[in-house]
Amino acid sequence: MTKQELVQKMQENSAYLPGKTVKLDFGDEGAIMLDGKANQVSEDNGAADTTIKVSWTDWQAMAAGQLDGMTAFMTGKLKVEGDMSNAMQLQGVLAKLR
Predict the structure, then answer these.
(1) Which of 51, 58, 55 is nearest to 29 (CA)?
(2) Half-sphere exposure of 67 (CA within 13 A, CB side)
(3) pTM (predicted TM-score)
(4) Fewer Cβ close by (within 10 Å): the C or N end of the chain?
(5) Structural domains present in the chain
């Protein structure tokens, strides 16, 4: 799945946290903004309540259920900046993609 396809699928499935902004930062691969305030998903790279830094490869493994989010966090494959409670809700966002 490409990043553009992911954005489209997330938008179609309302894969964002109501009232919160969460940025998925894929490093050189860019970013995806889950904007629960505007109820939209985009490739914007602005400020967010929570930023989740993860490689594109690890994100795809998480989305496919091959890598657990907590395991990724504990092994340093996933890093969280900002409001940790938003990151904890990431599993719910991933469930909307399966």
Answers:
(1) 55
(2) 19
(3) 0.89
(4) C
(5) 3-95 (3.30.1050.10)
pLDDT tens digits for 24-35?
999 999 999 999
Residue type, 47: A
Name the residue type at position 57: T
Query: Would you say 64 and 9 are in contact if contact means Cβ atoms under 8 Å apart?
Result: no
Residue-wise burial string across 84-96, b where 16 or more C-beta atoms lie within 10 A, e elsewhere: eebbeebeebbee
Distance CA 95, CA 98 (A): 6
Return the amino acid letter for 29: E
**Spatial separation of the C-alpha atoms in residues 8 and 10, rounded to whole Å:** 5
Phi, psi of 87 (to 5 degrees): -65, -35
64 or 36, greater pLDDT: 36
pLDDT at 58: 95
Reported as a pLDDT band with limits 50, 70 and 90, residue 98 is: low
